[in-house]
Every structure is written in C-alpha cells, then in structure tokens.
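pls design
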C-alpha cells in the first residue's frame, strides 16, 4: 500500500488539509496567511461550503468544519482596526445554522474579512 505524501507547503488544520494556490496568494503581508476554503484538498470543506452557499441545512460535521475554517481564517486575516477580533472569534462557537453563518459572514465583511 502506498500513501501519497503531502506537499511540503501543505498545512493541516484539524481534519482539513490546505495547499496554497500560488496563483491566488493572500494579498496582505502576514506571518501566517488565512487558508481559503478552495485551497482545502480533502473535499470536506468544499462540500460543507457548497451546502452553506446553497442555503441548505448543514450536518453537525459540516457545521464543525465550517466553524474550524472560520476560526483559522479570522485568527489570521487582516482586519479593520476598529473590529474586535476576540469578540468575533467568540461568536463562532455559537453558530448553529446556515442563516447564523450568513449573518456572521455579513458582519465579517463589514470589517474587511471575506472568508467565502
């Protein structure tokens, strides 16, 4: 049995594996750029995000994956100076529905963070 080794630039975050796309780098200089959902290679995040974007209910696993994704993104993203990153991060655990995520994403966009 052979296993495919991960590329050197792969980043594992929980059950997700991200490989940066050199054609679309994060546009701001940061120590650790946020990983964008389309860079995730297991397919788990893409399925969850597509379900969310279609306004469909999420399974518990899909919700957990999106929350993990949002957490890493918000922790690393450049954010407006007026935003309270700590407060925004604390809200992630309370997301329960597609509509909750939609409202949260709208709030993030107001401070310059576009995870989707």
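designed seq:
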């Amino acid at each position: 049995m052979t296993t495919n080794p991960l590329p050197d630039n792969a980043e594992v975050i929980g059950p997700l594996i991200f490989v940066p796309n050199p054609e679309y780098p994060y546009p701001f200089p940061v120590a650790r750029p946020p990983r964008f959902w389309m860079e995730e290679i297991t397919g788990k995040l893409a399925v969850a995000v597509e379900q969310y974007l279609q306004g469909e209910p999420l399974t518990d696993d899909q919700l957990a994956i999106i929350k993990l994704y949002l957490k890493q993104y918000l922790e690393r993203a450049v954010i407006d100076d007026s935003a309270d990153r700590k407060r925004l991060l604390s809200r992630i655990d309370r997301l329960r529905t597609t509509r909750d995520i939609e409202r949260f994403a709208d709030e993030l966009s107001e401070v310059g963070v576009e995870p989707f």
